[in-house]
Amino acid sequence: MGNSGSAVKVCTDHQGGINWLSLSPDGQRLLTGSEDGTARLWSTADSQCRGHLQGHESYITFCHLENEAAFTCSADHTIRKWDVVTGQCLAIYRGHTSIVNRILVAKDYLFSGSYDRTARCWSVDKEKQIQEFRGHRNCVLTLAHYSSRDVLEEEEEEEEQEEKVSRDLLVTGSTDCTVKVWELFSGSTDYTIRTWNIVTGEQLKVFKEHQGSVICLELVNRHLYSGSADRTVKCWFVDTGERIQTYKAHKHSVSTLKYHAGILFTGSGDACARAFNSRSGVLQKIFRGHKFIINCIQIHNELLYTASHDGTLRIWDIRGICKRNKRRLKKERSVQGRSSQKGSLSRLFNNKVGCMIQQENGEHEAVELM
Predict the structure, then answer these.
(1) Among 194, 198, 165, 174, CA closest to 184
(2) Span 311-329, mean pLDDT?
(3) 96 vs 329, which has greater pLDDT?
(4) What are the angstrom distances between the C-alpha of 126 and each of 4, 104, 109, 288?
(5) CA distances from 294 to 41, 55, 173, 290 (A)
(6) Phi and psi dihedrals of 276, rounded to 5?
(7) The pTM of the whole model exceeds 0.90
(8) Between vectors from CA 256 to CA 279 and to CA 186, what angle results, nearest 5°?
């Protein structure tokens, strides 16, 4: 394990700490939300600031970027939607009674978590609250969205779609040290039912192994990664709630995390970012340079972006670690393939031997199973 060296670039436009960083789906823009009460849009092509979003009455806690719209939430208890081209505020979502910590956009819905101990669901277009989720004993710090449609097996997808029913789940993490999974809505996989008609808010599961506040979540296929104030990240099977891996080595709270190509990247209150082998949990690299807590990380074109409370956005080259990880994965698949081939040959041999059939004339015939 080695150090990363210096960052490729350091951006210092904000006048306060950067609390969050979001990447647009098309990879062309980055959005940062800051303690200075503003958000900034950046081009990933040249890392230059291309927009300045102003309007919140207090600091911005979190931001989310789509290709054509940006969303920010704030200590002023509101959420705002912005036009990424003009910088105009398009909508304001009001209802929370305390600081809004997190937002998440999925389909036509906006989800939010707050210090008021609730998570809420909003209609993006109508600026209207649809559902309120209560159950945490303390503030809701983080959110993640999961759809069973994302992990349907290939053979299931080939069946009649109108017969298949999928679930959409909201996962919340709180300072009460728990992760809760809520069933939001269900409908046919051809989207013929409007999901707002059957929103339930029913609580499904609670994961309780963390010893500190659950600060950040990442959902990848059937795996849920949770970062905590207990200085660890844990990996769980979403369907069963079984904990399958714990990632240690942080010297302070785990404030943010991101999965990329078999590598789990984390940001911490110790001002360092780290890269772990997601399967084994082994620490592979430490990224040093920030002066304060790293609040968010993003990855694009094998560049790692880290945003910190020190007010800077740092960009790191991760081509080396990604290349090594790809070689490792290729080697593992090769070993697994040879092992599988040996097992198949062994089973074939055993089948042939076991299928020797006694004929009436006392002779044996080898019967091959095709």
Answers:
(1) 198
(2) 91
(3) 96
(4) 46, 16, 10, 44
(5) 19, 25, 19, 7
(6) -115, 150
(7) no
(8) 80
